[in-house]
Structure formats: C-alpha cells, structure tokens
Amino acid sequence: MELLTALHDSALSTWIREAETVWAFPTILTVHTLGMMLLVGCAWVVDLRLLGVGRTIPIGPLRPLFRLMWIAFWINLATGVLLFIADPERKATSLLFGMKMLLIIINLPMLTRLERAVYGGTAEPTVVSGGTKQLAAASAMLWAGTIFTGRLLGYM
What we know:
Elements: H1 2-8, H2 11-18, H3 25-50, H4 64-86, H5 88-92, H6 95-119, H7 130-155
Helix pairs in contact: 2-4, 3-4, 3-7, 6-7
C-alpha cells in the first residue's frame, strides 16, 4: 500500500487528477476510449466475419486489422497506465479492475491464436473451422466483458 500511496501522491498523479486543463485526465481518457474503440471494433469485425456475418466479404483482406488491434492495444496500455496512476489505491483494490485486467490478459494471446488459426497456412483462407469459430465467439464475448467492466469501473 505504501507504493500505491506514494504513486497517488506523486506530481504526475496529482496533475492527471486535478489539473484544470483538457490535456490531463479528459484527454487521457478520450485517447483510451478511442484506442478501445479501435481495438474492439477491429476485433469484432474479424470475429463476426469468422462467425458467418458478411459471408460475401473475403477474409484475406481483414488481416491488416490485427496490426491495428496491436497498435490500439499499445495506445491503451500507455493511457491505461496513466489512468491507473491517477487513482492507484482505488484501482488496485477494485474487483472490477482486476476482472478487466484478467479479461485483457486472457484475450491478448487469443488475438495471436486467432490470427494463426485463420492466416497460418494461406494468405486467402476460405473455410473457417469450428475451432476458429469458437475462438472468434470467445474473443467477441471477452472484449464485450472488458468494455462492460471498464464502463462499470468508470462509474464506481
């Protein structure tokens, strides 16, 4: 707890929480939200396509979305650390925060598994296996859970 208290009392934490400028907390939260929109939006496009939505859309051209998802993840990691620094004592002891982190930790390797399952052997996959569909369904549900817990955390 001493480390969390020291982090809470740091100049950076105080600035993020209390600065009367749009460049502090509001901008960090906005960039975090935009990063999550990009990450989850791209993930859901891929997941839904793999689950059969938009069957006329070829799967091959969706591969660059995985790169966008990773870029968005790194944006969210950076802004998420700053948001944590703003209120470390409350977030570190929050069950919702722990659940959100667990969902992210579970879903990140799934991104890699999903990309390998879809694009591992061919540049233009046409058949989606049952296992790949299960990964896509799990991915979509886990990202929905991540957003839900994050929104609840913001309101608590």
